Amino acid sequence: MTNINAGTILSTVESDTRDLRVTWADGHVSRFHHIWLRDNCRCPSCLHVQTRERIHDTYGIDPNIRPEAVSITDEGHQLSLTWPDGHQTDLPGNWLRLRCYSEAAREERRVRPTLWGSEILKNLPEVQAGDALETDEGLQDFIQKIRDYGLAVVRNLDCTEGMVEKLAGRISYLRQTNYGVGFDVESKPDPNNVAYTAIELKAHTDLANWESPPGIQFLHCLDNSAEGGESVLVDGFAAAEMLRQRDPEAFRLLSEVELPFRFIDKHWDLRWHAPTISLSLQGDFREIRYHAALCAPFDLPHDLVEPVYAALRSFTQILRDPAHEIRLKMGPGDVIVFHNRRVLHGRSAFDPNSGRRKLQGCYVDCDDAWSRLRVLKGENTN
Amino acid sequence: MTNINAGTILSTVESDTRDLRVTWADGHVSRFHHIWLRDNCRCPSCLHVQTRERIHDTYGIDPNIRPEAVSITDEGHQLSLTWPDGHQTDLPGNWLRLRCYSEAAREERRVRPTLWGSEILKNLPEVQAGDALETDEGLQDFIQKIRDYGLAVVRNLDCTEGMVEKLAGRISYLRQTNYGVGFDVESKPDPNNVAYTAIELKAHTDLANWESPPGIQFLHCLDNSAEGGESVLVDGFAAAEMLRQRDPEAFRLLSEVELPFRFIDKHWDLRWHAPTISLSLQGDFREIRYHAALCAPFDLPHDLVEPVYAALRSFTQILRDPAHEIRLKMGPGDVIVFHNRRVLHGRSAFDPNSGRRKLQGCYVDCDDAWSRLRVLKGENTN
C-alpha cells in the first residue's frame, strides 16, 4: 500500500442503523446509507453488463433495507455486503471513494468556471487550428478552454468555406436551428436577423428565444477588410457575479423573473420565457439570456415592471463596462469559439462600402461537447 | 364599432406619474408603464423593418421617461405618444390589448396542459397518418394534440423503414442524439441501451442525462408479433400534480433537489444534474426526469439521501398506479408520439422467440414544434 492509494483503501467499517461509517487509510471518513449501497450494487443483475445502465429498480427499494453482513475484502480494496435475501454486493474502494458524499468531497467535485474581465486579452485562451483538427491532445485542450473560460480563440484555420463546420465537427455533430446548420454572417439585402446587417450589435446571447439555446458558437472570419466590425466579448457569469455583489436586489430579480423572448418571420414563431440569469438549485450559474433584439413585450405583474427595467440597466452597466469586455478585430483564419449561454458577443458597426466582412458560423451543444471532453480524458469508465 | 371589436377600441386614456391608464370600449382597464410603452415602440428606427427584431436598446431607456403628449387616434384604434425628444410612438389598439399585463389578462394567456389518467384510453388523441402527412389542417391538429395532451397516436402510417422520419419531418427537422438521428428499437445482440433488449422497461423519460433532453419522441411500430411488448404511457405532469396534493414534502424535494444522471459507453459520457420535477418560476410544470437506468449514484447531503429515496418511492407509487397509466399493444402502422419530458413511456417484457418486435423512432424538439403550430395557426404576426 502506497500513500498515493491510501485514499482508496478501506481501513475500518462500522454499521449504524441507517448507514455504514467507512474510515479510509488516509483518515477520511465516509458515510454511506444502506439504501444507497443497495441501490448502487454493480453485479450483473443490477447493472446491465453491456449497456452499463442500471436494471435494478432505484425507485422501489425497501426503505429499511440493512445488510446482514459487511466486510472489507481484497486486502482493503473492496467493500462486501450481503443482503437479507442473500444478494451480494461488492464495491471497489476506488469506485466508492470517488462517490463519497461528505460535504468536503461534494465541494471538491464542484466544477467552477474561471471568471474573467478585460485582463484576459493579455493572455487569451488560444489554440492552433492544426492542433485541434489533427491531434487528440489539441482537441482536448481546445474543449477544456471552452469549458473553463467559456472562450477559445482558434488561429490559422484555412479560409475555405465550410472549414468552421469541420472544426466544430471535431467536437460533435452540429446543432440545427432556424438559421440552418451553418450560417454566413455578412451584410445581406434581405436580412432575417440584425446580425445580417452592418449595424452595431451590443453584446448579447444568441437565440435567447429558444427553450434550449445552442451551447457553443463558432464564428470563423473569412474576410474582415471593412472598417469597423470589431468583435466584443464579455463573460456573462463574471458580470452576473459582480451584479450579485453590487446590487443583490437586481440580481435576485433577474434570476427569479422570467422574461419573454420571441423571434418571428414567415416560417418561424419561436417563443420562450426565461430568467436573465439562470442558476442551478445550488446557486451555480447555468446560463445568461440577454438580447434586446429578441425581447418580447414584458408581461409582468404591474409592480415588477419598473424594478425589472432597473435591474436590467444595472446588469447592463456592468456588461458594457470596458473593464469587463474584450475587443478584438478578427483577421482571416481566426475563429472565436464561445459558450453562447455564458459569454456574450457583439460587434461594432462596420462600413460595408469600405471592404468586406464575412464570418461563417455554426453551433455544437454543450451536452455533447463536455461528453467528448470526458471521453478524451478517459473519464468514461463506470 | 361592433361588440366583437370593443376589446381593442380605446375609450379613454389618463396619464399618471409612472404609467397610463387605458380604458377599453368593453370596460376593461389596462395600465401600461411609460418605460414599457417607449420600449415597445414599433417605428422603423425601434423595430427593424425586415427582421422585425428590436433595434432599440431595451436595456438603456431613461427610467424617468414620460410622454409629453398622449392621444387616442384612428377612431379609437390607436394610441399615439410623443416623447420629450420628439420621437413618435403609435401603437395599434389590437396589438396593445393582446399585451395587457393586468393580472386577469396574464392569467388568461397562461397555457395549461390537459392532464390525464387511464380514462384517456377511451378517447385517445388520435390522428390519421394521411391527414398529418398531406394537409395543413391535419398537421395542425396533430401538433395541437401533442401540445395539449403530451400524446398523439397516429394510425395507418406505411410500414416502410424511414417513414417515421418523414412524419416527424412534417413538424420540423430531426434532433440528433448519441443514438443518432433515427433509431431502431428491437432486441439486439450488442445493445448500448436497455431498450435494445427484450426486458421490461418501467415507464421513464428518455435521455434524462442530457442538459436538454429531446422534446417530442416518435415510435413507429413496424412489427409487434412477439408475445408481450405492450406499451405503457403515463402523464408525468398529472402524476406530479397528484404528488403535490398527496405528499407536498416529497413534491418539494423532487422539485428542489437535483439528481445526477449519466450515460456511458465507448464514445460517450453524458452527465447532467436536474430535479425530478422541474417547475417554471411561476410553478408551472416544465419537465420530468425519471429513469432508473440512467441514475448516477446520488451525491446528496447526508441528511437528504433517505428523504429523497422516500420521495421517489412516493412519486413512483402514483406513476405505476394502473389508474394513471394506459397500456396498449401497438400494431404495425401505429405511431405513438409524445412529449418525452412530460409523458413517461415503457413496455412490458416480450419474448423474442415468439415473434418479432420492431419499432423505429426519432425526436423533434419542442421549440421548433410549437413554432410550427403557431405558424400553422397564423399567430406569427408581430
Automatic annotation (TrEMBL), chains A, B:
Record protein name field: Gamma-butyrobetaine dioxygenase
Domain of life: Bacteria
Xref: Pfam families: GBBH-like_N, TauD
Organism: Aestuariispira insulae
UniProt keyword annotations, A-Z: Dioxygenase, Iron, Metal-binding, Oxidoreductase
GO biological process, one term: carnitine biosynthetic process
InterPro entries, sorted: AlphaKG_dependent_hydroxylases, GBBH-like_N, GBBH-like_N_sf, TauD-like_sf, TauD/TfdA-like
GO molecular function, one term: metal ion binding
Cofactor: Fe(2+); L-ascorbate
Keyword Nucleotidyltransferase: no
High-level lineage: Bacteria, Pseudomonadati, Pseudomonadota, Alphaproteobacteria, Rhodospirillales
